[in-house]
C-alpha cells in the first residue's frame, strides 16, 4: 500500500483533492479517486455530476482549479505524445477532421500508433456500414461512435477512456460495442473506464461501479455489492404509516395498491422491526435491480440537496 506521498503505478487513475470550478459552478469537489489497473470500471452519476469534466481533466484538455490528477502515473497536465499513445479516448464531441475519408483517418492512425492492431479495427468497424471512401462528416452519429471506438481499440491502448460510448447506438451496434470492450479487456490487458447512464449495460460488463454525485465520490465497489446495499420492503401499514423523516435509510417510498413500498439503503432485519413497530401487518423484502438501486440513490439527493 502506498502512503500519502507515493503514487503507486497500479492505479491507472489517481486524483487528489481534485476540484474544478466553472465560474460559480463547482463541477468537481475535492475528489479523491483511485482506479486500479485492469478490468472494466463504470462511472455513473446524474446529469452534471462531473463525469465529462473529470475525463477532460484526466486527458489534459482542461486544467484543474485545484488538486491533481494522474493518469497512468503521469500528471494529466503534462502528458507527452507517448503517454497519449497509451490511452484511447472516445467521447461524443471527439473531433476527427470531417473532410477526411474514413480510409485516410485509419491510415493516419496506423502510421501514428506503433501497436496498431488492424484485426481489432476490422473487427469493430465490420459491425457498422461504414465505407472506407466515406467522409467522416457524412457518417451517422452511431457510425461515428463505432468508427471512433474501432480507432481507439486498434491503437492497442493500456487504458481506454470512454465518455458515454453507446449513446446513439442501435441495439445491435450496442451489443457489438460491449462485446468489443469485453474482448479487448480480456485479451489485451486493457483497463476500461467509461461513463454511462445505462445500468443494464453496466450490470453486464462492469467489474467496478463508481458513483459520482456533484463532483464527489459517493460509492465504489462491484456493482452487485452496491445492489446489496439497497433493499425493497413491502408492508401493509394501516393509515399513513411512519412519518417519512423517521424511516431509516429511506431512498424512496411509493404507495401501490394499498401497500407501502420502501427502498432503503444499508438496512438489515432491524428494518422489519421498525415497520412492525409502526403498525405494519405484512412485511416482505425483495432484492432490487442495479438500475433501481442506482436511480433511487441518485434521485434521493436530487430531492434533498442540503442533506449531508
Ligand atoms: N464549460 C463549462 N462552463 C460552465 N459550466 C460547465 C462547463 N462544462 C460543464 N459545466 C458544468 O459543470 C457541471 C459538470 O458537467 P459535466 O459535463 O462534467 O457533467 P456530466 O456528469 O458529464 O453530465 P452528463 O451526464 O449530463 O453528461 C455541470 O453542472 C455543467 O453545467
From TrEMBL:
Annotated ABC transporter domain residues: 13-239
GO MF annotation: an example: ATP binding
Keywords attached to this entry: ATP-binding, Nucleotide-binding
InterPro entries noted in UniProt: AAA+_ATPase (IPR003593), ABC_transporter-like_ATP-bd (IPR003439), P-loop_NTPase (IPR027417)
PROSITE patterns: ABC_TRANSPORTER_2
Name used for this protein in its record: ABC transporter ATP-binding protein
Organism: Gemmatimonas aurantiaca
Amino acid at each position: 500500500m502506498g502512503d500519502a506521498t507515493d503514487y503507486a503505478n497500479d492505479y491507472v487513475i489517481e486524483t487528489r483533492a481534485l476540484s474544478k470550478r466553472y465560474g460559480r459552478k463547482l463541477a468537481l469537489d475535492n475528489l479523491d479517486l483511485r482506479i486500479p489497473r485492469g478490468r472494466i470500471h463504470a462511472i455513473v452519476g446524474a446529469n452534471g455530476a462531473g463525469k465529462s469534466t473529470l475525463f477532460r481533466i484526466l486527458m489534459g484538455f482542461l486544467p484543474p482549479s485545484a488538486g491533481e490528477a494522474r493518469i497512468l502515473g503521469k500528471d494529466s497536465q503534462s502528458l507527452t505524445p507517448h503517454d497519449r499513445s497509451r490511452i484511447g479516448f472516445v467521447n461524443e464531441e471527439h473531433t476527427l477532421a470531417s473532410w477526411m475519408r474514413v480510409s485516410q483517418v485509419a491510415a493516419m492512425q496506423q502510421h501514428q500508433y506503433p501497436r496498431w492492431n488492424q484485426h481489432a479495427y476490422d473487427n469493430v468497424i465490420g459491425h457498422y456500414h461504414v465505407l472506407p471512401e466515406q467522409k467522416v462528416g457524412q457518417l451517422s452519429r452511431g457510425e461515428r461512435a463505432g468508427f471512433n471506438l474501432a480507432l481507439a481499440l486498434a491503437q492497442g491502448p493500456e487504458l481506454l477512456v470512454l465518455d458515454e460510448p453507446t449513446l446513439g447506438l442501435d441495439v445491435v451496434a450496442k451489443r457489438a460495442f460491449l462485446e468489443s470492450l469485453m474482448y479487448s479487456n480480456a485479451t489485451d490487458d486493457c483497463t476500461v473506464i467509461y461513463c454511462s447512464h445505462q445500468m443494464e449495460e453496466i450490470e453486464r460488463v462492469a467489474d467496478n461501479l463508481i458513483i459520482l454525485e456533484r463532483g464527489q465520490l459517493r460509492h465504489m465497489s462491484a456493482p452487485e455489492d452496491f445492489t446489496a446495499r439497497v433493499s425493497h420492503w413491502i408492508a401493509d401499514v394501516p393509515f399513513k404509516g411512519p412519518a417519512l423523516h423517521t424511516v431509516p435509510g429511506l431512498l424512496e417510498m411509493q404507495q401501490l395498491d394499498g401497500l407501502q413500498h420502501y427502498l432503503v439503503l444499508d438496512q438489515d432485519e432491524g428494518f422489519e422491526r421498525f415497520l412492525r413497530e409502526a403498525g405494519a401487518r405484512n412485511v416482505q423484502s425483495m432484492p432490487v435491480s442495479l438500475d433501481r438501486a442506482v436511480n433511487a440513490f441518485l434521485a434521493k439527493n436530487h430531492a434533498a440537496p442540503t442533506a449531508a
